[in-house]
Amino acid sequence: MTTDQSTRWKALTVALVAGFMTLLDVSIVNVALPSIRNELDLSSAELQWVLSGYALTFGLLLVPAGRFGDARGRRNVFIAGLILFTLASAAAGLAPSALWLVVARLVQGAAAGIVNPQVSGLIQQMFEPRERGRPFGLLGATIGVSTAVGPLLGGVLIAAIGPADGWRWIFFLNIPIGVVAVWLGSRWIPTGEQKRQESLDPVGVALLGIGVTLVLLPLVQEREWQGSWKWLLAAAGLTVLVGFVLWERSFNRTRTALVELGLFKVRSYALGALIGLLYFAGFTTIFFIYTLYLQSGLGYSALEAGLAITPFAVGSAVAAAVGGRFVNRFGRHMVVGGLIAVIAGLVATDVVLDAVPGSGGGWAAALPLLVAGAGSGFVISPNQTLTLAEVPVARAGSAGAVLQTGQRIGTAMGIAAVGSLFFNRLAAGQGDWGSAFRGALWLTVGFVVVALVAALADVLTARGRQNDAVPTTRSSHA
Question: Which of 274, 290, 295, 440 has the smallest C-beta neighbourhood within 10 Å, fewest atoms?
């Protein structure tokens, strides 16, 4: 379905603004964590839940919300999700306690998971296939810019308003934007044609959510829960995830399940999804532990911390724009090169911070972070393009949603694992922030190294298949 030329671009603007706002809340909160911790007396576990809880509920709602929008009309689902996100933002800004804030962030993440699938769905609804290049390009730029400006914008707000209340305005900022977007969205976004209702696979959603949460709990609560019994929860979580796979396999025979397991028979998709999960488990934790280290360890203000980490975001945004032009030429080799650059940049960051003592370390690390950020730009968008390249068009929507779900779950698990190591080393080192940060940074590098192994496996198996095909091709012309 297409709509009036001017109206659909207005509708797209509203959708992109809403998408920007929900993705901004992934990164903007990082520089506010020390202020939030001091104001609400958050434990290390609660601090991690503020971030990982948002990513977890965000990821779990992506696929079912996308289906629900397809079945019941994307405009209504988009507006409902936006209203919920705005209300949850207000609740987060008003939070009088740690529990209140964590619950508000969980609801915020769920609302973001409702809103985001509708954005790409609306592009497909309002634009013909030949017209979608520009709208999808704008969507990609929106994702990149939201990551780039998040820490810096958060730092500006806290510097302007003060650490005591500045962090609250990070959430309050969403209220006027959300209200205007709801009003304009109800006017400009077309209703679309209602399709037949699809199964939302609630059992699959519940099993995936319970399984991942059980795996996360002992990691996040590692210091608060004494005794080894807590690791039984991780074992139980893995058991539930096995049950999830079995359920999806049986569900796929009769109806469309939450995850189409047949997608993972496509080699490039399976390896690309693994790369995405592992890479997001690594790179998103950099913003978490680095901003804590800069502010609490080196005494940076929130604004200075935002400026210090901006080179990574800028490098990522620029490289993503360049990478989009050459991904078809270089293929997965570009992702391999990007991952190597990320590893080199992060290792160099560790070396520089160790060599330059005191507050000068953060500024000295700007160049290594720029290199790591540029590498990141050659990973995220190109990997997504390559991962979906061999997926049948009829399954492209489901494949993209599952890929994003894996990335959000990877983010949640990475924050839990790296955060647990970070705070444990901090406690063991009696407040040695430098040692805690560098130990956690090497775990982050470890996630990226495993992602690199998966990318190399894709390159090597693809080369092997090409070599095997050569004799066959020649014999056919004999």
Answer: 274
How far apart (Å, rounded) are the C-alpha atoms in residues 205 and 469? 41
* Type and span of the H or E element at 100: helix 98-126
Please give the model's pTM, rounded to 2 decimal places: 0.83
Sequence length of the chain is 478
Note down pLDDT in tens along the chain; length 478 residues: 445 677 888 999 999 999 999 988 988 898 899 999 999 999 888 998 998 889 889 888 888 888 788 777 889 999 999 999 999 999 999 999 999 999 999 999 999 999 988 887 888 788 877 777 678 767 766 776 777 688 889 999 999 998 888 999 999 999 999 999 999 999 898 886 655 556 677 888 888 889 888 888 888 777 777 778 888 998 999 999 899 888 888 876 666 667 777 778 888 888 889 998 999 988 888 888 999 999 989 999 999 999 998 898 888 878 877 876 777 777 788 899 999 999 999 999 999 998 988 888 889 999 999 999 999 888 887 887 788 777 776 566 667 778 888 888 888 889 888 988 998 888 887 778 988 999 999 999 999 999 999 999 888 877 666 555 444 444 444 3
Largest CA distance in the chain: 79
Reading the block at residue 310, the tokens are: 């901006």
User: Between helices 5-27 and 74-93, what is the axis angle to 10°?
Assistant: 30
| Residue 85 to residue 230: CA distance in whole angstroms | 33
**Domains of the chain, start order:** 1-189 (1.20.1250.20), 202-257 (no CATH), 264-466 (1.20.1250.20)
Please give the C-alpha separations between residue 234 and each of 23, 230, 286, 316, 413, in angstroms, as whole numbers: 29, 7, 24, 34, 12
- CB-based contact 192:1 (threshold 8 Å): yes
Cβ atoms of 52 and 216 within 8 Å: the answer is: yes
Other CB atoms within 10 A of residue 202 CB:
10
Q: What is the 3-state secondary structure (H, E, C) of 176-245?
A: HHHHHHHHHHHHHCCCCCCCCCCCCCHHHHHHHHHHHHHHHHHHHCCCCCCCHHHHHHHHHHHHHHHHHH
Residue 420's identity, in one-letter code, is S
Q: What span, in angstroms and rounded, lies between the C-alpha atoms of 464 and 94?
A: 58
Residue labelled with tokens 């190591």: 421
